[in-house]
Each structure stands twice: as structure tokens, then as C-alpha cells.
Amino acid sequence: MVTKKQIAQAKVLYKACKSGVAPDNKTKKQLVELYNEIHQTRYRPTTNCGSCLHTVFDGIKKIALQNE
Known about the structure:
The protein has one domain.
């Protein structure tokens, strides 16, 4: 179950990365950590794997847009 706090954080992070690119490493790390927390996965916050980051971005995007 996604909490209201997680939904709010997803919206903030999605707005920062709307183009699909995180503006900095701190934001990318926050995206991965939030995704891991919600989906109980173990992606490394420092990953540069394009496929992994695409999955993370799509997951956060879906949460942010579903709960507008």
C-alpha cells in the first residue's frame, strides 16, 4: 500500500524529472530509494543501468499521475 507521504514525494520527484532525466544524482538517488521502498526491490541507489532507471522512472510516474 502506498502511503500519502510516498504519493506526495512521488509527485515532487516526478515534477523534477518530467523530461525523463534526473537533474542531479541526489534526485536520482531519491527516485530509486522511493521506488525500492514502495515496491520492495533492491535497486542500488547509485545504479546507472538504463533499463533499471527506466523501470524506476515509469513506476514513480505511474504513482504520481494516478493520484493527481
